[in-house]
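Board notes (copied after class):
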Amino acid sequence: MRFSLILIFFLLPLASAPTIAVQSSSTLDILDKLGSYPCPDSDFTCVELAVPLNHFDPNDTRSIEVVFGVLPATGERLGMFVTATGGPGTSGLSYADSYAGSFPAEINEHYDLVFFDQRGGSLSGNLKCPTAATQFYRSDWQAITPQQEQQLVATAQQFADECITEMGVDPDTLGFYGTRQAVEDLEAFRQAAGEDKLWLYGESYGTQFVQQYAAAHPDHTAAVILDGPVDLTLTGIEYYTEQVQAFNEVLAETLQACNSDNTCRGDFQNEQALDFYNELAAELQTAPITVEFALTSGRTDARQFTLSDLETVAAGFVYSEDARMLLQRGLAAASKGDFTLMMSLLYNALGVDPETETPLPGGSEGYSDALFYAVECSDYAYFEGTVEARAEAFLRDGDEIEGKIPHFGSLIYGDLPCVFWPGQPPDERPTPFVARGIPTFVLGATADPATPVANAERIFSHLDDGYLIVTQGGAHVIFGRGDACPDDLITDFLVDGTRPEERRIECEGVVSDPYQPLAPADAAELDSPLAVLNALTTDLLYLPEYYYWDGETLTMMACPQGGVLSFAPSFSGDQFRFSTCAFSQGFTITGSGRYDYENGDLTLSVQIGGYKTGQVSYLLDSEGRSSISGEFDGSLIEISSDPS
């Protein structure tokens, strides 16, 4: 299980617009002087800087290369807008183009967008240990009995040892991957680019990075935006204690939202979703469930679904409104005895190939578990004394959580490998972030499980010039998701210097996206071929493999009830191929389909097999209207439906 480390009103005068930076040469000219090159598969321009491995010891001559990506402003330039992504362990450059596309257009019009791969990540060292990590996340993290405690400690130590070996780096260098060192890499880039001040946006772990940069270099910080923030004054145990409680609460809210939706409740056969989850957890506490998982070869493979797997899926899919809906669908299918969808969600959370259960070559969006621990174990100190004493102290603190919170109690042990990791953690936690003279926006959500909203409240309470924006419900990280609140507030400030009239702002939100029903187990349950294809396309569009697809890689997978499905990109849309593909028993399709990027239409041209046969064309438009025409069961048909 891996996780990212995320009323009194004051009337304020409007601030003046930011001063336009005056430069003797364009951004591209400066990048060119730094030896820039096109970032791989990206619109960004990359710059590789050699920086000291240890910024704080001038006698240490070792160096490391760190890569930054820049997308120059398209209009009147106001400065550099730097994004520090979450994790720790994400590749900022992997996200750069998609994030640039999700930010309001006015931001790139007026700012050079800057992303980077933090030291050790992807293009900046590519520290990886996917095999060790997959084994660790699928292990049993419970520590209720002495035997479980002993096994958990051994598992954490084994992971630390095997991860370091798999990385193939000198263990003595791992203490230099913490945030304190990494923020100096950004300062080196600022100096090389000749920029006076940076506009900083951090999400989740990135808020740790941004706070530490602004605290170390306040004179070179123009403004700060903390989205899904981490309160740096907390110890690791204090932080995880709040996080475990938040995960537990958001899971309950997610499943309660299902109970309030007639369609979702119906897919659980009117059983309370949280009751089913608890029953399933109790069953898995006794023994794993064997799942016959379909393969593209036409065979099935017996897979084991464990209690740890359940918690990995549940924790991994409560981060956002859409992911929570996918979790509801997976549990609803499991309530009917079909664990195929839960296995697909598990493989997505782990970043492994569903066919082979081995780590995918590219991992999860450039994410590195190795870098997570290299940073985490240098940023947080876990107890004192011998390794054995520190592990024992960790377990004893865990006793205060595990077994006393209904769900996710074992998450308290997420950083247990740090006991065995070569890091250089600080002796004391930082003082509260004040950001004196620096406008600071703090963004949070009441349903954020990873960085509970209490973090945002505490940070805001200490700020010299702060604004708190909280979404009711909402996701972990709320900016750039297309919601006018908070997007307009942040954009107005960045572009026009307009500050909110109130220090505290509340945004409306939801816990979960509207539920999308499961296709029936047997196609005979539906009364028309149009109804069957409507159900099939819903399942298709919300398959984890397609829903989280990178949009680039030709992907082939087994259909849930047999047959094969593939999808690939084209200039005009996603292309599908089906070979006796079944989402419900008794109804297969063979043929092709396309999702049109421009108009949002999904079209299929398929041969139907199973209980009935035929050859049909199908359309699902962007408004949810659907139609089918062709030959079915020996007759010509033309049927349409309009959900409105």
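Comment from the instructor: The longest helix spans residues 236-259. Residues 383 and 393 are 7 Å apart (CA to CA).
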